[in-house]
Amino acid sequence: MARKKVSIVGAGHVGSHAALWLALKEISDVMLIDIVEGMAEGKALDIMEAAPVEGFDVSVRGSSDYGDLAASDLVIITAGLPRKPGMTRSDLIGKNAAIVKSVVEQVVMHCPQALLMVVTNPLDVMVHAAWKISGLPPERIVGMAGALDSARLRAFVAMELGVSVEDVQAMVIGGHGDEMVPLRRYTTVSGIPVERLLSPGKVDAVMERTKKAGGEIVSLLKTGSAFYAPSACVAEMAEAIIRDKKRIIPCAAYCKGRYGLDGVFVGVPVRLGERGVEEIIEIDLDTEERKAFDNSVAAIKKLAAELKF
Ligand code: TXD
């Protein structure tokens, strides 16, 4: 069987590391595309030169020609500016919207059959914009953020308890912004609710750290934002799609009628497979969780209004 093709537009920190994870795990062939002449080619070649050492047999190529998107099964958009210290994700909206627009137009032209994963910030609004521009059915477009926010929460719980991350499950829903909603009731360690293992104060602290985890890294790095964990999550979602794994992962998905919403992309648990968002899973939210989720949706809508799509 021919290998699937995943294209990544934006060969910066997140894009190039996602290419590396995909290659290491032999998930698909990879096409890296960037507007900076030579950059994607250089990084792709560098990854191919690691192949003999790590023993992966997929092909990773780079290009600055959008025509090389042809025949992609999945296109991942990581093109756009990252945050610098003092910036919120929302500050990126104008420049990144223009970049996402130009990229989506190329995707539609060269591989209209591909599924689309958006990574560029401000995430939820960029997915919505990409969907509008692409004209794709909403289940074929998804945003990566909840996977990352949940991974961060899992890492913090494991660090706090001194247990294996393998045993920690967590769920962060809502938008990928300060109003994200880490769900303590759905955070468990081998099935044990985290609230049974950590004091209420510690649980609060872990949830708060999760909400600010992106900013914590931005202020340490000073020149850009996180990329190791984000790219690992991109690869996790790409694997779910390419290998039709039917993983349940929180993703920015189009909610119309679901969660009582009227047509907005927001982070919710999704069954992810070869058809994209195969199902949106509605979990029970208590009054406080629902309030926080509604607040997060309101923040996305406010930001989306700036784009007027
Ligand atoms: O959880 C999440 N969704 C995120 C999102 C986690 C981490 C990073 N997140 C966002 O991804 C971040 O806020 C940015 O908006 C994007 C990309 O972050 P990255 O850290 O990879 O930024 P870089 O290293 O600056 O890379 C961006 C690349 C760079 O090489 C540009 O030349 C390229 O994008 N770029 C383009 N490529 C192709 N086509 C066009 N038009 C283009 N414009 C810029």
General description of the model:
With 309 residues, this protein is α/β, with parallel strands linked by helices. The protein is built from ten helices and 14 strands. The chain has two domains: 5-143, 3-Layer(aba) Sandwich (Rossmann fold); 146-304, Lactate dehydrogenase/glycoside hydrolase, family 4, C-terminal (L-2-Hydroxyisocaproate Dehydrogenase, Chain A, domain 2), CATH 3.90.110.10. The strands form four sheets. The protein has a six-stranded parallel sheet with strand order 3-2-1-4-5-6, with helices on both faces. Helix 1 (13-24) packs across helix 9 (228-242) and helix 4 packs parallel to helix 5. The protein is globular and about 50 Å long. The N and C termini lie far apart (41 Å). The structure holds 1,4,5,6-tetrahydronicotinamide adenine dinucleotide. Residues 9-15, 33-36, 78-83, 92, 96, 99, 102-103, 119-121, 123, 144-145, 148, 176, 224-227, 230 line the site of 1,4,5,6-tetrahydronicotinamide adenine dinucleotide. 1,4,5,6-tetrahydronicotinamide adenine dinucleotide (TXD) is lined by residues 9-15, 33-36, 78-83, 92, 96, 99, 102-103, 119-121, 123, 144-145, 148, 176, 224-227, 230.
